[in-house]
Amino acid sequence: MRNLHRFWLIASVIITALPLTHAVSAHQITDTPLTIRQTVENALKIYPSVTVSQEQVNAAAAAIDLARTAYLPHVDGIAQVNRATSNNVFGLLLPQAVVPSISGPVFGSNDFGTVWGSAVGGLVTWEPFDFGFRGANVSAAKASRTRAEATLKRTEFEVSVATADAYLTLAAAQETVRTAQAGVDRSEVLQRSVRALVDAQLRPGADASMTEAELAIARTQLAEAEQAVDVAKTVVAQFVGLQPQQVVISGISSVQLPPDEAIPVFDSAQNPVTAEQNAVVDQKKAELRILEKSYVPRFFAQASVYARGTGANVNGTRLGGLNGLAPDTQNYALGLSVNFPVLDFASIHAREAAQFSTIRAESARYQQISTELTGQWNAALATLSGSRSVAANTPVQVSSADAALRQATARYQSGLGTIIEVADAQRLLTQAQIDDALARLNVWRAWLRVAATSGDIRPFLTGASQ
Prior knowledge:
single chain; alpha+beta; 4-stranded antiparallel β-sheet; about 10% strand; elongated
């Protein structure tokens, strides 16, 4: 009995400890701050749109194998057993799929007597040459795979840029919370100090009300900043496959700004969006080559071996029993067939004209994308230059605001200033600190825009993760 009690005690301890162990492990995993590079890498692994594009590449690769099977001979086989009447008539019957055909002479009979019939055979068909038609189909399948691969790269690129932008948004929101919290702390210190002076009847009660109002404003600003953090976390969470409350980031090293020489050389053709559109143009050209190879003769070498059995004689009499179940009369044949769609010229020509128009449209779209990217590049450079100028000025703004707060506080303590001056100085300092933090992050955001327009954000991720 004592051993059983000990067993249940140990089991209960283990069962109780398991959830705790799991919770500790989950806590260790989710509380590990993610760098911006790690966040982007995780998004590329699990985001559904990347998986969709990858499977499209796999399907396009399988389509190439399918197109190549056209070079192989086709082998068809048949085996059949039937029980049917043997009445036969002369006359023409247009091609159709309803009335079965009967071979053999006309007996002149018209009754319901039936006989056994059987057939077994095989047909091998091979196209020895095709004037490039099958090769054009294989080339079109390869062009389709190239387009799918370009689409995958474009999707990965867009997911990377969107994830990095969401990361910067969260980092900016957290910086706003940090500075807003500092503003709340200053307001609380001021409120306590003024309250003590009011209680000692050294300052009017209106000063206490003013500080309480300023503290409420600071707390409202902090709550709004925390709300922005929660919203930003939901965006990051959808990319990395976590719950919003599990998202913890290490932030951006805003002290060291990206150097000027980090700006890449712009080439619109290197952007994944442009590369994808170029692949679309190549695919349409490959499809045009299929049409160009369509108006040619098709040669088919064929070989057939077959045997048939019947329970009917040529004089119209019927054999009894199981006669006709075994195919006992055999034949073989070798031949060459030539098919040529003589009257398809007009339709093929019309399809070629339509395909030419499609190619011109896709080529124009390629030029449009290149033009738009050039405009985005110039705008990104201007934004980066302006962000650097702002980031160089905000430290002066913070220093001046801090000095103004100290002076206003000193004037108020000496009785030469008002509480309104101190409150205004506190709000100015809080806003200056927020502007300074966001200004540095905006430089990184502008650099991300520059990198995204150039088509390669890897240098940005390297610099932002340091």
